[in-house]
Amino acid sequence: MNENVVDGTAEAGDGDEPAEGRAGESRGAAAPLLVLRKIVQILDAFSIESSELGLQQITRATGLPASTCQRLVRNMVAEGFLDRVDDRYRIGMGLVQRAAPGTFGLDLVALSRPVLQALRDETGETACLYVRSGPYRTIVALAESRHPVMRLFVVGMVMPLHAGSAGKVLMAWDPTARKEAVGHGLGRFTDHTVVDIDVLTAQLADVRDAGFAASFEERDAGAASISAPVFGLSGELVAALGIGAPLQRLNPVDVDRLAPVVVDAAADASRRLGYRADLHAAVERTG
């Protein structure tokens, strides 16, 4: 990483901070921590709704001095923490790639990887594993399609719950997820995004009855997906597993053919995590 970011010396002497702050930064270990805090402030300025920002917007969102913000943003672009297109910035692919190894130690990811690869091979489409964080879902593992034309997915990609089949699976089996999504607001991404709470509630009931969710152009035009739930040892919902593809290869007429394949893959992932559907059903019957 650029030494100006690491050692904090530029931050300690640029005149942007009050004297007591500069004195504190000169004491050694405090300097890198202060700089890291500012980097986190810059990263936190980005969100699903504000995925691309100009430098002035970042400065306003962080409250950092303009010269400090400009220098840190420039260094973060150089290190891949941010990507720049014209005068706009977004979270960098370099940061996503650095974060990806952190998922490899998870049992969920490790045990699901063969399932994702098998699902990709059987359907020909990109297979993804999603977990929930608040009103969002995040891809923690995937097996990428070999088609030259494909939907773009990357590990670490964050998406809203209410737009897309994986999010609807997470909401259908987890009332807390639905509550957080509704509380956050049902933003519209395309003409097909469901933004009516009553319609969403009815859809989630259908998803739970069917055992899977299918969505078409809810988050991106020309894109579709099918997802199913993955359960843990004690029967709790732990993830959603599914496929995503361009609409020309995955449309409503394909659901009857592909949904059972996705459901079977999710069931296989659940079994690998120790879930026993027969035992769980017996426990539910006996109360």
Describe this structure in words.
- With 287 residues, the chain is of the alpha+beta class.
- It is 48% helix and 17% strand.
- The chain has 13 helices and eight strands.
- The strands form two sheets. Strands 5-4-3-8-7-6 form a six-stranded antiparallel beta sheet, sandwiched between helices. A two-stranded antiparallel sheet has the order 1-2.
- α4 (30-44) packs across α5, α8 (107-123) runs antiparallel to α12 and α9 packs across α11 (197-210).
In summary, what is this structure?
With 287 residues, the chain is α+β, with helices and mostly antiparallel strands. 48% of the residues lie in helices and 17% in strands.
List the defining traits of the structure above.
alpha+beta; 6-stranded antiparallel sheet; two-stranded antiparallel sheet; 48% helix; globular; disordered N terminus
Helix content: 40-55%
C-alpha geometry: globular
Classify the secondary structure makeup into a structural class. Answer: alpha+beta
Give the oligomeric state: single chain
Distance between the termini: 57 Å
What's the SSE pattern? HHHHHHEEHHEEEHHHEEEHH
Task: Provide the low-confidence segments as ranges.
Answer: 1-26
* Average pLDDT metric: 84
